[in-house]
C-alpha cells in the first residue's frame, strides 16, 4: 500500500496519521545537526550526547494482519443529522434500511443511505474534486445502477478543484495539479451527471452537488434500534440509533495495526471450527480512547455470506486482513524519517549530512526506505 495512505499534510510536512506522529527534525544543508555518541559516551570530545538513534535494517515487511473480532450486529451507531432543519419523518424501530433507501426526511426532503465511510464533511460540487469521500459517492452511485464512467487510477494527476487543492497567489486562487492516491475518487463530469439523475429519481434538487447532511452513511444496511427524535423536532441532535441489518464482525484494532486496514480491503473471517468466509472491510472508525486506556479503532468487517455462519451473537472469530508484502528491503522506524518542506524525505546520520531517501511500505511503525546513500547497518537519528 503506498505510503501516501499513511501520510497527511500538516503545514509543510507529511506526517503519519493514526498511531504515529513523526517529529520533523530541522536540518541545515551540508551540516550534521546531531553529534554521535562515542563508546565513552561523549560526542566528538564534547558533552555526553543523548540523541536517540536507530539502525537501518534489512528484512521483510508486511501489512497483513490477523485480529480477533466479535460476531453480531455490531456497535450501535448514533445517527446525527448534518444540517439544520425540521424532522418530518423517521422510520419505526425494527425497520431495515438498505442502500439508496430513505433513512429519514428533513423539511420533507429525503436523506438516503449510502454504504461505506467516511461521511461527508464538505460540499462536493466542482469537477476535479479528489478524495475518499468522492470515492464513496462514486461507489454508491455505481452500485445503484447509475453510469459514473471511468475513474482516474492511483498516480493519475488531475486539476484540483476544492479548497484543499487550491493555493492563493497575489490574492488570487488558482488550481493546482493533484495526484490521485489509492482509495481516492475524482468528481468527473460523468459522476456529476449520474448524481443529477440520482437526485431527480429521489425527488431532490438535481443540481449535481452534495452538501453535508444530504446523505447518511453506514457500513451496510441498518436496522433501526431506538428512535431518539420524532416528527416536528428540530434536526439538531441525535435522531436514532441503528445496528447492522446483517451480522458483521466488529474488531477493535490497536493503534499500531490501523495502518494495515483499508476501507474496501479484502478480509477472511475464520469461524470456530475452521469455516472461512471471504469478506471486506466496510468501515474504519477513528481512533478513540477506551476504558482500559488503549487507543483503538473500530473496524467493521462484512462477510460475503453472513447467513452461512449460523452463529449466535457475541462469538469471537478471527479476521485476516489482506495486505501487501515487501521482501528483503531496508527499513527504519517511522520516527527516523525526516519530512522536508518540498515533500521529499531523508534520514539523518548523527555525524554526517542528511541522506535523501524514498519511502515505501509502512507497517507497525516501520517504513521501507531506499536511496543511493542508505545502507544496511547505518545509524540514523530517531525523533523521540
TrEMBL record:
Segments passing through the bilayer: 15-34
Taxonomy, superkingdom: Bacteria
Keywords: Coiled coil, Membrane, Transmembrane, Transmembrane helix
Subcellular localization: Cell envelope
InterPro entries given in the database record: PGBDSf, UPF0194_transport
Gene Ontology annotations for the cellular component aspect, listed alphabetically: cell envelope
The protein's name: Uncharacterized protein
Amino acid at each position: 500500500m503506498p505510503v501516501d495512505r499513511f501520510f497527511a499534510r500538516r503545514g509543510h510536512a507529511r506526517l503519519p496519521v493514526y498511531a504515529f506522529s513523526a517529529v520533523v527534525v530541522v536540518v541545515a544543508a551540508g551540516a550534521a545537526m546531531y553529534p554521535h555518541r562515542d563508546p565513552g559516551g561523549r560526542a566528538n570530545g564534547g558533552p555526553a550526547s543523548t540523541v536517540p538513534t536507530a539502525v537501518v535494517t534489512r528484512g521483510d515487511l508486511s501489512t497483513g494482519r490477523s485480529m480477533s473480532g466479535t460476531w453480531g450486529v455490531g456497535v450501535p451507531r448514533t445517527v446525527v443529522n448534518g444540517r439544520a432543519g425540521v424532522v418530518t419523518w423517521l422510520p419505526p424501530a425494527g425497520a431495515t434500511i438498505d442502500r439508496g433507501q430513505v433513512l429519514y426526511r428533513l423539511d420533507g426532503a429525503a436523506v438516503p443511505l449510502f454504504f461505506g465511510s467516511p461521511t461527508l464533511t464538505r460540499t462536493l460540487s466542482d469537477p476535479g474534486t479528489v478524495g475518499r469521500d468522492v470515492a464513496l459517492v462514486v461507489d454508491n452511485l455505481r452500485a445503484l445502477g447509475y453510469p459514473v464512467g471511468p475513474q482516474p487510477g492511483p498516480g493519475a494527476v488531475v486539476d484540483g478543484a476544492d479548497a484543499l487543492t487550491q493555493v492563493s497567489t497575489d490574492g488570487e486562487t488558482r488550481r493546482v495539479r493533484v495526484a490521485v492516491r489509492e482509495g481516492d475518487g475524482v468528481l468527473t463530469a460523468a459522476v456529476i451527471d449520474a448524481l443529477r439523475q440520482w437526485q431527480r429519481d429521489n425527488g431532490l434538487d438535481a443540481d449535481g452537488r452534495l452538501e453535508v447532511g444530504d446523505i447518511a452513511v453506514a457500513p451496510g444496511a441498518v436496522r433501526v434500534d431506538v428512535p431518539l427524535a420524532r416528527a416536528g423536532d428540530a434536526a439538531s441532535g441525535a435522531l436514532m440509533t441503528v445496528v447492522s441489518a446483517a451480522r458483521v464482525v466488529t474488531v477493535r484494532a490497536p493503534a499500531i495495526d490501523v495502518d494495515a486496514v483499508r476501507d474496501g480491503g479484502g478480509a477472511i473471517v475464520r469461524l470456530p471450527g475452521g469455516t472461512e468466509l471471504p469478506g471486506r472491510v466496510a468501515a474504519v472508525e477513528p481512533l478513540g480512547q477506551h476504558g482500559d486506556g488503549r487507543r483503538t479503532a473500530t473496524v467493521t468487517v462484512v462477510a460475503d455470506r453472513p447467513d452461512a455462519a449460523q452463529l449466535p451473537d457475541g462469538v469471537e472469530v478471527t479476521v485476516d486482513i489482506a495486505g501487501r508484502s515487501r521482501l528483503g528491503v531496508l527499513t527504519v522506524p517511522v520516527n527516523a524519517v525526516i519530512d522536508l518542506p518540498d515533500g521529499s524525505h531523508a534520514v539523518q546520520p548523527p555525524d554526517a549530512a542528511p541522506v535523501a531517501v524514498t519511502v515505501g511500505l509502512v507497517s507497525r511503525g516501520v517504513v521501507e526506505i531506499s536511496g543511493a546513500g542508505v545502507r544496511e547497518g547505518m545509524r540514523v537519528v530517531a525523533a523521540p
